[in-house]
Amino acid sequence: MLRASHLPPSATPAISVLRFSLISSTNNFFPPSNLHKISPYSSPSLTFLPKTLEPSLPRPSPFGFKRLIPMASPNASASLSAESGSGGGREILVQHLLVKEDDVKLLLDLQQRISGGEDLSDLAVEYSLCPSKEEGGMLGWVRKGQMVPEFEEAAFSAPLNKVVRCKTKFGWHLLQVLSEREESLLKDIQPEGLHARIQDPSFIDEAQLIDHREPDECHHGMRSLQVAKWLQTQGFRKVYNVAGGIHAYALKADQSIPTY
């Protein structure tokens, strides 16, 4: 049985990104009570991702206007190849700044300063109301269905590297799409499928296994799925989540694992 403690003590880029803190936002994107310490050195993992994949960019701040993607039922059945995400679409790398709805004068002034050559990142740090200001307004890689409709429409229709503005219920945004790519995939793997793959020694060289369990939480893989979705925003292109979490793994694949 492979345990996360079998991973080398020296942190690879893939492990290093997991050590970043998840910062809650004004919209409770990741409520503090729901956050989990992600340790690569604890018990059997709920999520794994290929070792060869590394985050391509710094982590984004959880942004206040982003709503959580509805998570699948813990009883939902999925095979190794079944996608939990939409897949096959387009992802964009977005940064923005947010000002109040009635602060139109500031909005126009900032837009003029950007047109004059000032950097959106610098202005976001100074003026933005979004928690992403700490990252220069960087929201990371996003896909359709993750943002409020008005922001999504503006972002996915914006030309690359051109600052555009849009209005949402949160206020006025100046946003810029920095890059685009084919959408990454988030897939479920059944406990039996993971257990079978663990028996293959080559699997150890192909994947990072991650446990982010805390006592009395993450029974059925819901928290691991939430973190798996977050990993996608960090640049990981292929992430697997164990369907049903550690509870299902203990019942269906390895009864030596204690349930709780």
Notable traits:
isomerase, Chitinase A, domain 3, 260 residues, alpha+beta, Rhodanese-like_dom, 8 strands, elongated, Peptidyl-prolyl cis-trans isomerase, rotamase, 8 helices, EC 5.2.1.8
What does this structure look like?
The chain has 260 residues and is of the alpha+beta class. It has 2 domains: 4-59 and 66-86 and 184-252, no CATH class; 90-182, Chitinase A, domain 3. Helices cover 27% and strands 20% of the residues. It contains 8 helices and 8 strands; from the N terminus they run αββααβαβββααβαβα. It has helices at 13-18, 104-115, 120-127, 149-157, 191-198, 201-206, 222-233, 245-252; strands at 47-50, 90-99, 138-142, 163-168, 171-182, 185-189, 207-210, 238-242. Strands 6-8-1-7 form a 4-stranded mixed β-sheet. It has a 4-stranded antiparallel β-sheet with strand order 3-2-5-4. The longest helix is centred in the middle third of the chain and has 12 residues, at 104-115. The radius of gyration is 20 Å and the shape is elongated. The two termini are 19 Å apart. Its EC number is 5.2.1.8. Residues 89-179 form the PpiC domain. It comes from Morus notabilis. It holds the Pfam family Rotamase_3. It catalyses: [protein]-peptidylproline (omega=180) = [protein]-peptidylproline (omega=0).
